Amino acid sequence: MDVTYIRPKNTRDALAELAKWGEKRRILAGGTDLLVRMEQGVEEPEVIIDISAVDEWKHIQRRDGKIKIGSLVTYRDIEEDGNGLTNDACVLVEACRQIGSVQIRNRATIGGNLGNASPAADAVLALYVLDAEICLESVKGERWIPVSKFIIGPGKTVRKLDEVITAVAFSPMKDGERGFFQKIGQRRAVTISKVSAGGTVLMEGKTIKQCRLALGAVAPTVLRVQEVEAMLTGQPLDSDHITRAAAIAMQTCTPIDDIRSTVSYRRKLAGVLVRRGLESCQFSQ
Description:
Layout lengths: L3 E3 L4 H11 L3 E4 L5 H7 L6 E4 L9 E4 L2 E5 L4 H6 L4 H4 L1 H8 L4 H6 L2 H7 L5 H8 L3 E6 L2 E6 H4 E3 L2 E2 L6 E7 L7 E8 L7 E12 L2 E10 L6 E2 L1 H7 L6 H14 L10 H21 L2
Parallel strand pairs: 1-3, 2-3
Antiparallel strand pairs: 4-5, 5-10, 6-7, 6-10, 8-9, 11-12, 12-13, 13-14
Helix pairs in contact: 5-8, 10-11, 11-12
């Protein structure tokens, strides 16, 4: 089948093309997922809109107390940390470092990872931990939506047909706030997560003032473990509370059996990764 290829050069033209073609088109950003699915015959688009030349969506900015990352920023851009993200979003930087190979990280984009809506998406888990918001744009305007409300199931989002992800935004981590990202896959590198975990801990003296924790690949979407967050808040970050947090994480998640792992193994891993992550924050005090 012949495919119409369109490569707009700016936001206005990109949004116009999205509105014009409707269900016939697919959006190409880095291409690390779409091109594979096309090769496998899973996707057969009539029109490909390649947004990779839209420079307005390639910047990392700080404005009004927020960090704004354009949807075409690559994992490698984030990993190389030209804008201080190691201090302000360490969980995101670490997640990006563990995605695929260098070649993949040079191409794959933060917006593409969000649009695929995989419950195993490493960068998406980090955005849950950071309470990020997603900017969706169309010719009708833009709207911002929390990442936790954007993804509604495996491969499913609330994005309308004429909308495209143009940015994500979140508040920087506070001074003294610690973060972690942990994952287990089939191999040590270039692997999809069997289970992943990420979190941040803000201490006030020896007491946890704020805690955020999320799990990946153990539910239909990335899972914020609010039971653990509530239990830890106001408590010391000691071995007893870390053990309790790991146990609650195991009980809360709802994994499935698939070609990568089993329910029982994923449940155990969820507890292990939460324990390891919180211990890493404990030892950094």
